[in-house]
Design a protein that fits this description.
This protein is α+β, with helices and mostly antiparallel strands and 115 residues long. 41% of the residues lie in helices and 20% in strands. The strands form 2 sheets. The protein has a 4-stranded antiparallel β-sheet. It has a two-stranded antiparallel ribbon with strand order 2-5.
Length: 115
């Protein structure tokens, strides 16, 4: 676990029947999606009563305490790729040839229907 994590502590309420870990987390912490919770469980970022649990089907009950270590989200920014000009030109020529071929094919089909 890295230094850039948010720790979430969850206690299972009294009189809660035993249920799957992933279901309990989805109910008790709806801010995280089910798929995100499952990936955190599988990566070992969920501790139940002092033990790392890597199984979403693990049964939790009212006496369990859950600690989730959630890595802080990093904003992704799109970056342009450095594509050589010659490669770009080849891609454009292929694209134009394909477009002209489609246009000629369509024109030929129209002419065949007229005659």
């Amino acid at each position: 676990m890295s230094d850039e994590t948010q720790t979430i502590k969850i206690s299972i309420p009294e009189d809660t029947p035993p249920m799957r870990l992933d279901k309990a987390l989805a109910i008790l912490h709806p801010d995280l999606s089910r798929s995100r919770l499952k990936s955190l469980i599988l990566s070992g970022d969920v501790i139940v009563s002092g033990y790392i649990v890597k199984t979403a089907s693990y049964k939790v009950s009212s006496k369990d305490e859950i600690i989730i270590s959630v890595p802080v989200a990093v904003e992704d920014t799109p970056r342009a790729q450095n594509i050589p000009l010659i490669l770009f030109m080849k891609m454009m020529i292929y694209w134009l040839l394909i477009r002209q071929w489609e246009w000629l094919f369509t024109l030929g089909r129209v002419i065949m229907k007229i005659h």
